[in-house]
Amino acid sequence: MRRLVFDGAPSTNLYGVDIVSHWDVGFAMFRDRDTFSAHFIEADFMSSNPTLQKLEGTADVIFISQVLHQWNWSDQLRAAKRLVAFSKPGTLLAGCQIGNVNAREVKFGPEKVPLWRQNPESFTKLWEQAGVETGSNWKTEAWLRTWKDMGWDPQDQALMEEDDRVIDFVVTRTQ
Question: Are 144 and 101 in contact (CB under 8 A)?
């Protein structure tokens, strides 16, 4: 959000939602408590929080990063439909998450939690299905990037599978 402000967006027009409040850390790091006026909401965006309900249908741009890959296909679809609720025709939704060359379910961690790794084709299908189920239409652009492309240390991939990548995406609501 601070980058958006740096690029000219008024901070009063920005809303940040996180399940845990880290806002004070940002204020301390950037020393901008008196000048950065974004609205911070500590909530699970999947909830029916009254503050979040007021934002439904109002977003011009939604940025979601490193969130969706934490769920299986059905929960990613549920999250996509929740994001649709915040959108309106013309909304641009952008972000990134962990994906894979081959879209598939993986079992992650000692608990073997089922997660769905998207590739560009499956991510497009996710948004097509979300559109059908919500009566909206979406144009999806997605591409895979390697850890090297991202400028990340290869050791960052140590817990990942060989074909895991970062999937960047821009999804635009066309109706």
Answer: yes
Contacts for 84 with CB less than 8 Å, ≥ 6 apart: 130, 131, 134, 136, 173
d(CA 57, CA 45): 14
Domain extent at residue 29: 1-42
What is the CATH classification number for the domain harbouring 89?
3.40.50.150
Please indicate, yes or no, whether the overall pTM of this predicted structure exceeds 0.85: yes
Which of these, 169, 165, 172, lies nearest to 142 by C-alpha position?
169
Q: CA distances (Å), 150 to each of 89, 96, 166, in order? A: 31, 11, 8
Task: Please name which of 133, 129, 110 lies closest in space to residue 171, comparing C-alpha atoms.
Answer: 129
Tell me the per-residue pLDDT of 106-154, one tens digit each, with 9 for 90 and over.
998 888 999 999 999 999 999 999 999 999 999 999 999 998 898 888 7
Is residue 100 domain-shared with residue 65, that is, in the same domain?
A: yes
Would 112 be classed as within a structural domain? yes
Q: At what angle do helices 73-86 and 120-134 cross, to 10 degrees?
A: 60
Q: How many Cβ atoms from other residues are within 10 Å of residue 104's Cβ? A: 15
